[in-house]
Design brief:
By secondary structure, the protein is an alpha/beta fold. It has 3 domains: 271 residues, Rossmann fold (3-Layer(aba) Sandwich), CATH 3.40.50; 125 residues, no CATH class; 82 residues, no CATH class. It is 24% helix and 19% strand. The protein contains 12 helices and 20 strands. The strands form 5 sheets. Strands 2-3-1-11-12-13-17-18 form an 8-stranded mixed β-sheet, with helices on both faces. Strands 8-7-6-10 form a 4-stranded antiparallel β-sheet, covered by helices on one side. It has a 3-stranded antiparallel β-sheet with strand order 4-5-9, covered by helices on one side. Strand 11, helix 5 and strand 12 form a beta-alpha-beta unit. Helix 2 runs parallel beside helix 7. The longest helix is centred in the C-terminal third of the chain and has 20 residues.
Length: 547
């Protein structure tokens, strides 16, 4: 009702409809945590193509398992990836100190944007020519030119260039070099602690020009500058044994390692791949995957486990997961799946010779492709789940497949005409003996999708008056979301009543719940389960019966 009715006449008032549309979240945004040649450390970066990955993280690196997994992810249909780079504790960033003033003193400390050998390819030049500066304040300004080079034999090629104009060494200037460079450059950083700034400020000397009048560039990472290095080799036994597990897991309090993914909110990730974990020592491998499974459960995400190199027979696979040498087994978790065998792919960094890789990136791409074409409720398996860009390290027979499937181990198979395909759809809780309701990957992932969508779309409920008008709105909005999934074919049943229900009333929320500030919402759905076994019965007719 209007706040005051003062004159006779007609009053118009807009009445809220109570509609709060719930939008489905993503289903296959995939996170990769590993060593990479370059890029921000312990920071989740969103990429949408292999070109993005090459630009930010340097592309394929023979020491990085995840670099090949990301390539496979996009090759097999992936769309959005969150990439977290971890680095050795003794990794260093290439640096250089520029001098200036009279008498000569340190004027500007320049470092590569992130640690690693890649920074040794960065070069900088200082231009103090008044003709190239703002004429209103030329004596107090300088230009900084940055470039990245690639050396092949005796040939040096410039692959990236940045020009930062009219910089100042004074903190009070709007063009203070430290602030401008750190906000704009993807190649270098100016550490604040090393560049405190002063008034009027010490400007770096010009690096001069060559005979053609071009600026002279000084390289980072060359003596007496700071040399950039990757530290412990990420594929070495030393790093894997001492730092690998801790680097991949990181710490929640610092948001490092996989915990860097906690910082991407309100965005989410749906699938987690840790390809480097397969190379860890047995006990470290188990601790990493167990912690990763718990992390995924907390984030309503799904983990794809890679098996260690050398697990090349069905017997070894069974023994690794559930056998007598159980020290290196991973926990059987409803939010995880494992695939056998590993894959062989042509390695562009090694004359296209075969390189064995884990299938997690490949399968994450197939998950994404299947989600886009059929929906998250369709199993990422079958003849349309073809593997692109890789061949099976081991070819299984039907009998060997039959020994793995009842144990919750998903097979990758090769069939005439169809080629290499994903041929299993069970979670790690999918062994027959466990009789779990979360036996199948599409059922579990559909539940995670619904849970996250309802979670994201329910924030408006908090602090609303807890009574029937609120409950009715909840039933309306939750029901509309579930009905949209029903119309897409996400559930069993031919009618909404058979497919799903939403219940929120005085039966789910008692007076005691109301007194404690609780509203209980019960949502149920009839999941689609994959047809794992197709049984065709053929009978010979005994003869015609005369009528």
């Amino acid at each position: 009702m209007p706040s005051s009715l003062t004159y006779p006449g007609v009053y118009i008032e807009e009445v809220p409809s109570g509609v709060h549309t719930i939008t489905g979240v993503s289903t296959s945004d995939t996170a990769f945590v590993d060593f990479f040649a370059r890029g921000p450390v312990n920071e989740a970066t969103r990429i949408t193509s292999i070109s993005d990955f090459e630009r930010v993280f340097g592309g394929l690196d023979a020491r990085s398992e995840a670099s090949y997994a990301i390539q496979q992810y996009y090759l097999n249909g992936g769309s959005v990836a969150w990439v977290v780079r971890v680095a050795a504790s003794n990794a260093t960033a290439a640096g250089l100190t520029l001098t200036g003033g009279s008498p000569t003193q340190d004027a500007l400390v320049v470092e590569a944007a992130s640690p690693g050998q890649w920074g040794n390819n960065i070069q900088v030049a200082v231009d103090r020519d008044p003709r190239n500066l703002d004429p209103r304040d030329a004596p107090n300004l300088f230009n900084l030119i940055v470039r990245e080079v690639k050396t092949t034999g005796s040939t040096q090629t410039v692959v990236n260039t940045e020009m930062h104009r009219n910089l100042s060494a004074s903190k009070n200037s709007a063009r203070y070099a430290v602030d401008v460079i750190n906000n704009a450059s993807s190649l270098i950083t100016l550490p604040k602690a090393s560049n405190p700034g002063s008034l009027p400020g010490i400007l770096p000397d010009s690096t001069g020009t060559d005979s053609n009048g071009n600026p002279v560039f000084l390289p980072l990472g060359v003596a007496p500058a700071t040399v950039g290095g990757d530290g412990f080799e990420p594929d070495s036994s030393q790093w894997l044994a001492t730092e690998g597990a801790a680097a991949l897991l990181g710490k929640a309090v610092d948001k490092t390692g996989m915990n860097a993914l906690l910082s991407i909110a309100p965005a989410i990730f749906n699938i987690l791949c840790l390809p480097a974990a397969a190379n860890l020592p047995a006990t470290s491998l188990k601790s990493v995957y167990d912690a990763a499974a718990k992390f995924c459960a907390d984030q309503r995400a799904f983990l794809i486990v890679d098996i260690p190199p050398g697990t090349d027979t069905p017997a070894k696979m069974i023994d690794w997961l559930d056998g007598s040498t159980n020290a290196d087994a991973v926990a059987r978790d409803k939010n995880a799946a494992v695939y056998f065998p590993r894959l062989n792919m042509a390695d562009p960094l090694n004359e296209n010779r075969l390189r064995e890789v884990g299938p997690s990136g490949t399968m994450a791409g197939i998950y994404a492709r299947t989600d886009a074409s059929r929906g998250v409720w369709k199993a990422p398996a079958g003849t349309d789940a073809n593997v692109r860009g890789g061949n099976l390290a081991v070819k299984l027979t039907d009998l060997e497949n039959g020994a793995l499937n009842p144990l919750g181990i998903n097979a990758l198979r090769n069939f005439p005409i169809f080629g290499n395909v994903g041929w299993g759809a069970r979670t790690l809780e999918g062994a027959d003996q466990q009789a779990s309701e979360w036996k199948y990957i599409p059922v579990r992932r559909t539940a995670l999708y619904i849970e996250e969508s309802l979670y994201q779309g329910s924030k408006w409920i908090v602090f609303e008056p807890n009574d029937e008008p609120l409950w009715a709105q909840i039933r309306l909005n939750f029901g509309a979301f579930m009905h949209s999934l029903f119309r897409q074919g996400a559930f069993q049943g031919t009618t909404p009543r058979e497919a799903y229900f939403v219940k929120c009333d005085k039966e789910t929320t008692t007076q005691d719940d109301i007194n404690r500030g609780i509203v209980n919402i019960l949502v149920g759905f009839a999941p689609l389960k994959p047809a794992e076994f197709v049984v065709i019965k053929i009978q010979q007719m005994a003869g015609q019966i005369e009528v």
